[in-house]
Automatic annotation (TrEMBL):
SUPFAM superfamilies: Acyl-CoA N-acyltransferases (Nat) (SSF55729). GO terms for molecular function: aminoacyltransferase activity. Belongs to the FemABX family. This is BioF2-like acetyltransferase domain-containing protein. Pfam families: Acetyltransf_6. The keyword Transferase applies. Keywords: Acyltransferase, Cell shape, Cell wall biogenesis/degradation, Peptidoglycan synthesis, Transferase. Residues 188-343 form the BioF2-like acetyltransferase domain. It comes from the Archaea. GO terms for biological process: cell wall macromolecule biosynthetic process; cell wall organization; regulation of cell shape. It comes from Methanosarcina horonobensis HB-1 = JCM 15518. InterPro entries: Acyl_CoA_acyltransferase, BioF2-like_GNAT_dom, FEMABX, PG_Glycine_Bridge_Synth.
């Protein structure tokens, strides 16, 4: 499937699915685009496609005359009811209702198309990519709607012009680490600064894994499973709230095999008296660190403040290596929630990210009717 148009100066522009030969040029577009983030990179999309066994529709726009990519669009297909009980009890029905999403929102990430910043008429390139995924969706028929949330607002107008509606807002907190460490620390909650100093005095040490091939297994078996158990306990084993946290081992395998060798991901441990009491995986791209996965032991280790010390180490280490921002990867919508209050204790600046949808109304009504019928059968 290809879409070809005549562009400025008479050159031909081709919109198509990517091939493995596009990797270097794909990453170049992400690097040079205003909207490009870690979650647009070829490597991250490979982790999602292979690690989550997800159907990917990776789209590229090529300038045929110059034989180079000028636009990219990571796009995934997932079951609409993937995190609902309908998927558990009626998987065949669930497969008939899907959504197209950029990013794949099983995990914290961002998406939408990217175009080289040097392109003067980027609106036409954006439209070409949106037309491509729309054509694909119409042929597939069971895709109910598209969901996109871009990290930067430079995409807002392009999304609206191409039929997307802003339906909500996600928030994250970003710590500016391009300052003196004392200035950064001054912005913390006073108690946070005390807790970080106390953790160091009490002998909690932070160090980077030097054997990530084995340590990723340790992380998954000791810390990721602990996090899932905690969510099960906190939610009363609510399927809808537990299901998004059930990230398969294959995902962590792909982190290990694809991201760690290139230092796009790094694993840190917090250790106390020879016991690993906390672990953190960070993602690195351009000038930003993204908090990836974090888990700490509770119970007798609860007062060690390992989580705070891991984040403080990320700031110190990131600043040392020339990074300017640490994205704490999302804020709870309720300002009274513990997660919100904890992350804002690090004096991060709130960043709002628009949630955009493109609906196909008849299919949505049909899906709701199916759900209602299933609920009646169950009752």
């Amino acid at each position: 499937m290809e879409i070809t148009i005549e562009y400025e100066g008479g050159s031909l522009i081709i919109c198509r699915k990517v091939t493995v030969e596009d990797k270097e040029q794909w990453n170049n577009v992400v690097k040079e685009s205003l909207n490009g983030t870690f979650y647009h990179t070829w490597e991250w999309n490979e982790v999602i496609e292979k690690g989550l066994n997800s159907e990917a529709l990776s789209v590229a726009v090529e300038d045929d005359e110059e034989n180079k990519l000028i636009g990219i669009f990571p796009f995934f297909i997932r079951n609409l009811f993937e995190d609902y009980k309908i998927n558990k009890y009626f998987p065949d029905i669930s497969k008939n209702f899907q959504i197209g999403c950029s990013p794949h929102h099983k995990l914290y990430s961002f998406g939408g198309p990217c175009v080289l910043s040097s392109i003067t008429n980027s609106e036409e390139i954006y439209k070409l990519m949106f037309d491509f995924v729309n054509t694909y969706s119409k042929k597939k028929k069971n895709i109910i709607y598209h969901l996109i949330y871009p990290y930067h607002n430079c995409l807002d107008s392009a999304l609206i012009q191409n039929g997307y509606t802003r339906t909500g807002i996600k928030k994250t907190a970003i710590i500016n680490i391009d300052k003196d460490l004392k200035e950064i620390c001054k912005g913390f909650k006073k108690q946070f600064s005390k807790d970080i100093r106390r953790a160091s005095r009490n002998g909690v040490i932070i160090y980077e894994s030097r054997n990530y091939k084995e340590d990723i297994d340790l992380y998954y078996n000791q810390f990721q499973k602990l996090l899932i158990d905690r969510i099960i306990e906190r939610t009363g084993n609510s399927y809808r709230r537990v299901s998004p946290a059930l990230v398969p081992y294959s995902y962590f395998e792909k982190l290990r095999d694809i991201l760690f060798p290139q230092k796009m991901a790094r694993l840190f441990f917090a250790e106390y008296n020879g016991v690993k009491v906390g672990a953190l995986i960070n993602f690195y791209y351009k000038d930003t660190i993204y908090l990836g996965h974090t888990s700490v032991l509770r119970g007798e280790y609860n007062d060690l403040n390992a989580y705070k010390l891991l984040i403080w180490h990320s700031i110190v280490d990131g600043k040392k290596n020339g990074f300017k921002n640490l994205d704490l990867t999302g804020l709870h919508h309720n300002e009274l929630d513990g997660q919100y209050r904890f992350k804002m204790g690090f004096d991060g600046q709130i960043k709002e990210i628009g949630v955009y949808k493109s609906y196909r109304y008849n299919e949505i009504k049909h899906a709701k009717a199916i759900i209602n019928e299933l609920r009646k059968l169950k009752s």
